[in-house]
Specification:
alpha/beta, seven-stranded mixed beta sheet, seven-stranded antiparallel beta sheet, 13 helices
Length: about 450
């Protein structure tokens, strides 16, 4: 029997990798884990967590404005970017410490180094040149922002990574992209007082979301003062004489801004990882190909999280890690469940969604009932703000099962999490109707829409 240095070696210290390593170590396995940057991964260090902190910061100017409608007199306010960055960095350091302590407390061995595969059981730690062996290896290296290297002048631009560490807040910014990262940062920068423009090649932002959500958010963003350019792309970025940047677009526009941000998706982080040496197969995007149990084509090597390009969400990576533990160390083969994942876009207003969009549901079910409510939230009645909330339930007419729930408005993400439980439990529209409303609340609309707004039969609205 071959003796290995470790029972499990994890490459990547993000949420999925740390969970797999920590739990395996708690079960008495000898675990090593390597991370080349900081423990916590994309979400904690340069993703969801700092982004949400920035979202909170960017909302205060509206809160100050709204206060007047409720009788408060708020004096002059001033935003200090440096103080936000300092506070954010302190919180991220605290969270990273928790990740490390969780590993240490369970006696996992931590390596602050890049790790690369030498073969199916051997890992090289590039910082020291040391090689170690492991019975099993988990690859959880995550993803990286697409640098869009084919774009002339891309080196003058930033990605979401650099957005968290800018020395000064720009006066103007052009953000390329129409996905949730681009949309969230457009709202963040606008909320912090930056002249913000979003440019996207598609006809609508957030193309994978329900059409009422994306159209409602688009309208709200434009009303706030965010400029949105559709069906156009940046063709070149160059230095301007005044020290700023000039972006030339395919449709002939020339935009002068201080900063250009590329939010054009994220790619699996597999380059130079030694996958070829170990015989691990990848797809055309560089994502590691895995089976239903997160196992690669090499029997003892597994991959979790964004590096597999399945569903790029932190809770999904953690779920995949727990399924790995069940399968490998608890003799309980468990495959990840990707059905009905609640999702939020932390824009302003927020989007919360779970299940099928109206368009996707229409392709799957013969007849749908669609329940839709649009209204001015109570808070806006005294603040004087013109914002609207949209709530929408998509129902299979035959079974009465709610197959999609979508919300645009304050705390939509919080509501979507709870709706996720309902849809996971196969709740019907009758279950919603039998539920007593909590008044006054925005969420009561979800249980008081008794009559369908319209129906869809064989893909056509009737």
């Amino acid at each position: 029997m071959t003796a290995y240095d470790y029972d499990l070696f994890v490459i990547g210290g993000g949420s999925g990798g740390v969970r797999a390593g920590r739990v395996a170590a708690s079960l008495g396995k000898k675990v090593g884990i390597a991370e080349e940057y900081r423990f916590g991964g994309t979400c904690v260090i340069r993703g969801c967590v700092p982004k949400k902190l920035f979202v909170y910061a960017s909302q205060f100017h509206e809160h100050f404005e709204d206060a007047a409608g409720f009788g408060w007199e708020v004096g002059a306010s001033r935003f200090d970017w440096a103080k936000l960055i300092e506070a954010k960095d302190k919180e991220i350091a605290r969270l990273e410490g928790l990740y490390r302590r969780g590993l240490e407390n369970n006696k996992a061995e931590i390596f602050d180094s890049r790790a690369e595969l030498v073969d199916a059981h051997t890992v090289r730690l590039t910082k020291s040149g040391e090689t170690v062996t492991a019975e099993r290896i988990v690859i959880a290296t995550g993803g990286v922002a697409n640098p869009h290297s084919a774009l002339p002048g891309h080196e003058l631009c930033i990605t979401s990574n650099e957005a968290f560490h800018l020395e000064t807040l720009p006066k103007s910014i052009l953000i390329a992209g129409g996905g949730y990262i681009a949309v969230e940062f457009a709202n963040i920068f606008h909320g912090l007082g930056v002249d913000t423009t979003l440019i996207y090649r598609g006809k609508e932002i957030l193309s994978r979301f329900d059409h009422d959500m994306r159209q409602g958010l688009h309208k709200a963003m434009v009303e706030k003062g965010i400029k949105i350019i559709l069906t156009d792309v940046i063709e070149e970025v160059a230095k301007a004489p005044d020290g700023g940047l000039t972006a030339r677009t395919k449709c002939g526009e020339t935009l002068s801004v201080e900063t250009v941000m590329l939010a054009l998706g994220r790619d699996p982080y597999t380059k130079g990882l030694g996958l070829e040496a170990a015989g691990v197969k990848t797809d055309e995007r560089g994502a590691i190909i895995v089976d239903e149990y997160s196992r690669t084509n090499v029997e003892n090597i597994y991959a979790l999280g964004d590096v597999t390009d399945r569903v790029q969400l932190t809770p999904v990576a953690i779920h995949e890690a727990m399924c790995f533990i069940e399968t490998v160390y608890r003799n309980n083969p468990t495959s990840p469940d990707y059905d009905l994942i609640p999702t939020a876009v932390f824009s302003q207003p927020e989007i919360g969604t779970v299940g099928l969009s109206e368009d996707d549901a229409a392709k799957r079910y013969e007849e749908l009932e669609v329940y839709r409510a649009e209204f001015r939230p109570m808070k806006a009645t005294l603040s004087g703000r013109s914002e609207r909330m949209i709530m929408k339930l998509v129902v299979d007419a035959a079974s009465r099962k709610v197959v999609g729930a979508h919300i645009l408005g304050h705390e939509a993400g919080e509501m979507a999490q709870l709706l996720g439980i309902c849809l996971k439990a196969s709740a019907t529209k009758d279950d919603f109707d039998r539920t007593m409303a909590l008044h006054p609340s925005a969420a009561e609309e979800l249980v008081t829409m008794y009559n369908p707004s319209y129906r869809i039969k064989n893909g056509e609205r009737v």
